[in-house]
Fold:
Amino acid sequence: LEKQIVIVCSNLGMLSASVLSIIPLIRPYQWQSLLIPVLPNDMLDFLDAPVPYIVGVQNKTPDLQSRLANAVIIDANKNQIKSASVPQLPQQKELLSALRPYHSRLVGESYLARKRPVYECTDAQGGSSQRFLGSS
Structure:
């Protein structure tokens, strides 16, 4: 879990929401290191720190990519994840099968989601999230 994670997104609302959403996703674990929802461009030298972090940046530049050779880079603009090594999840196929209906439902709501602030879910998104989080 102790990785350097950088999320890239041009939309500041989506960027900060994406960074902050990682914390509940890792439960029952707790993030004990640095968390910066939006790192200003003039502070990108911070990414050279030898500690684990979760950081949001607005623009992906060639300089940024060279600094992050060992980091996990989540490009929310392109819906891509890049990492030097991504471990296989236990029972990955079963997990993907279980998540597929929720994903389909949420993707169907994406058009409606664009017309509202990031922090406001649609009824379908809220219901899907509750059903997913309620099933252990």
Observations:
- The chain has a mean pLDDT of 81.
- The first strand starts at residue 4 and ends at 8.
- Residues 61 and 67 are 10 Å apart (CA to CA).
